[in-house]
Design brief:
about 400 residues, L,D-transpeptidase catalytic domain-like, 9-stranded mixed β-sheet, 5 helices
Length: about 400
């Protein structure tokens, strides 16, 4: 064979063979195709099957290689809200988890490799009795009750609250007619809300406490949510002047009753009617009144049974009927500190008052203490709101 023929054979050997996809290459094997794009990888936290998950822990869902579609986290028929990040590759729950609940998580994600789904479940911590925070009492909370324009909202907790800021943030007061207001912590277990000015009359005010799962202190969690609505009625304001011995009652600004009264005789501090803004608190018919700090036989001891008595302080002051003082009513102050009136007019007041109606008293040298009964309006609002955990912070 000539040299020319040998070169042609080598050229043919190097360039010969089929070139289409899947053809046999050197060694006779098939050429491999490009690897397929994988579906998105979904990760859920808390891990599947986790138990005793703390209620303040977040549920976090991520998708690698794609975008999250639907994320559903449910327990007891209620869904947990959450937020996606800007790239929709991460979802984080908002708000606390509910204690002692079984949660299910369902997720979808989509990417170039197709769609992926994932499910998971976990259970939350069941707090012991000493770890539970509940609301023991909400005042007012009597179904169908109409209250006055001065009525505060008083919330008593089942145990001392360690993290007041978090708990206060979970409590919302929503009036139909907006007005500024603030909470004040009276002690570790009692928080009271009042507006800066009296509630606008004729409206409903809703109170909600989203406490379920809220961390209220070290290893202490709220157990459930609460909601109630109070109905604010007409603006009943009674003005008492102990110097003129008169009481004028106005309803929505209109005079509806004038009453001759007798106030405290002021021979001692105890027998001096307190000045300031009082609220009607409760009533009784009859009420037995006994001299404070004295026993039978002591000088100044008394025990009186009075009718149609409406309490206005915790120091023993009432508006009540006093048939024995009719001759002094409108002329002189002879009582042990109460505001007394003619029996028929006292009954009228008794029949028409609501808890939280306003009784303003002037004319004496003894001021009502802000924490004497419901004397909260005695404290300027600027000072009142300093008792809020959020304002203080």
């Amino acid at each position: 064979m000539s040299a020319t023929a040998t070169a042609l054979l080598l050229t043919a050997s190097c360039s010969g063979g089929a070139t289409g996809p899947g053809s046999a290459g050197p060694g006779g094997g098939s050429q491999s195709s490009a690897p397929a794009t994988p579906a998105p990888q979904i990760k859920i936290s808390p891990a599947k099957g986790a138990t005793a998950v703390r209620p303040d822990k977040k549920v976090v869902v991520t998708a690698a290689g794609g975008e999250l579609g639907e994320v559903t986290v449910q327990a007891g028929g209620k869904s947990l809200e959450g937020e996606f990040d800007s790239g929709r590759t991460k979802w984080v729950s908002k708000g606390p988890l509910r204690p002692s609940e079984a949660y299910t998580v369902s997720v979808t994600a989509t990417g170039q490799g197709g769609q992926a789904t994932a499910t998971s479940s976990f259970t939350t911590l069941e707090p012991t009795a000493s770890q539970q925070l509940r609301i023991a009492d909400i005042t007012p909370n009597i179904k169908g009750e109409t209250v006055g324009i001065g009525m505060p909202i008083m919330v008593r907790f089942s145990r001392p609250v360690g993290d007041k800021k978090t708990v206060e943030r979970a409590m919302q007061v929503t009036p139909e007619k907006p007005v500024a207001g603030a909470w004040r912590w009276i002690d570790d277990s009692l928080a009271i809300y009042r507006p800066a000015k009296f509630w606008p009359a004729h409206q409903k005010v809703r109170f909600t406490a989203s406490l379920a799962g809220v961390r209220a202190g070290k290893d202490v969690y709220g157990m459930r949510d609460y909601a109630t609505t109070m109905k604010v009625g007409a603006a009943w304001i009674s003005s008492v002047d102990t110097r003129t011995h008169q009481m004028v009652v106005r309803r929505d600004g209109k005079v509806v009753q004038k009453m001759a009264i007798s106030a405290g005789k002021a021979t001692t501090r105890e027998y001096t009617t307190t000045n300031g803004v009082h609220l009607t608190m409760e009533r009784g018919n009859p009420v037995t009144m006994i001299s404070p700090g004295k026993k039978k036989g002591d000088p100044g001891y008394y025990k009186e049974i009075v009718n149609h008595a409406v309490r206005i302080s915790n120091s023993g002051e009432y508006v009540h009927g006093a048939p024995w003082s009719v001759g002094s009513q409108g002329r002189a102050n002879v009582s042990h500190g109460c505001v007394n009136a003619r029996p028929d007019q006292a009954k009228w007041f008794y029949d028409n008052f609501h808890r939280g109606d306003v009784v303003k008293i002037v004319g004496t040298n003894r001021a009502l203490e802000w924490n004497n009964g419901w004397g909260f309006w005695q404290m300027p609002f600027k000072q009142w709101k300093k008792g809020s955990a959020l304002t203080a912070a």
